Amino acid sequence: MTLAAALPLSERLAPLWSDLPSLLGPHVALTGASLMTAVAIALPLAVLSLWRPRWRGPLLTIAGVTQTIPGLALLALMVPALALLDDMVPLPIPSLGWPPTLLALVAYAILPILRNGVTGLAGVDEDLVEAATGLGMTRWQVLRQVQLPLAFPVISAGMRTATVWTVGVATLATPVGQPCLGTYIFTGLQTRDHLRVVFGCLAAAVLAMALDALLGWLERTRTLSGRRAALASLATVLIGGSTMSWWGQTEETGVPVVIGTKGFTEQYILAALVEDRLRAAGFAPRRRDNLGSTVVRDGLAAGEIDVSIDYTGTLWIQGHPGEPAPRQEAILDVLRPELHREGI
Q1: Which SS3 state, helix, strand or coil, does residue 113 take?
Q2: Contact at 8 Å (CB) between 160 and 217?
Q3: Is the pTM of the predicted complex or chain greater than 0.90?
């Protein structure tokens, strides 16, 4: 039994509830931003496939290929991709946290919206389209007033599927430096705190069910006033949830310092010691926990992580895969210039 498991349930739940605003807020914000971006991309592509049927197959194939990549792998691949893009363009592009997570979630959410959009628009009765055209409607008027309203239930079903997927995949964003409900799960798994794991899973499930219910309300409603009410409720949940991370926060004074940690107990302890020392020295430390080894190294090189504790063996394997390591005293002599060249 772990020390945490020996505490009363109320004492174990207290820190979980206190962390909820800072983790649920970014999770809701990411979900909302990803879905809106995916809809903005997928619906025009669905319309394009309606007007250009030859494009339908390639578009669906490209969107489907993304689903074959495991979510965690896709998130991890976004980090070096954004770091490479940052080197190519004059504007700074963060490679940790929000940007890689947003890109990965959008890529995952496009397929169900696009597929249902294509199916819904293609399933509209051709006689209705011909009748609307015969009344003098333009192609855009037919789309807006006939095809999209009739296809909306099918499109909405795709949006609901994308929403549930997005909430679930977003829990994997912790290893790329993005606070989310997955932080409960990753930390709980590493510290054998099963209550923390269950709490994170339940929080994500409740969020997914709430958003799915609101979209289901929007799908079932046929009146304009009802759809406005459903949209207002959905916007309230997304905006209110997104701002939760700012509730009750106090701004720390001092120079901000980002501490990057990997996902195991020793790193949590060392990072907490570093955090206490920095705060006592007048800095404003901020933690990014449960990062992968390569993510930490990329973050240090990009300047998005200021402090991290690593191990010579890990650093050697990263830079010299398959090569035998020299003696302990000589490893640092080799690693120091290599890390210096990377800007670490």
Answers
A1: helix
A2: no
A3: no
How many of the other CB atoms lie within 10 Å of CB of 132? 18
* Under 8 Å between Cβ of 260 and 300: yes
The torsion region of residue 303 among left (phi > 0), alpha (psi -120 to 50) and beta comes to left
Strand 256-262: give its sheet, edge to edge. Answer: 284-291, 256-262, 307-308
CA distances from 255 to 230, 262, 284, 285 (A): 44, 23, 6, 8
For 242, how many CA atoms within 13 A lie in the half-sphere containing its CB? 12
Which amino acid, one-letter code, is at 227? R
**Summary count for the chain: helices (H), strands (E):** 14, 3
Termini Cα distance of the chain: 40
29 residue type, one letter: A
Q: pLDDT tens, 139-169?
A: 888 888 889 888 988 999 999 999 999 999 9
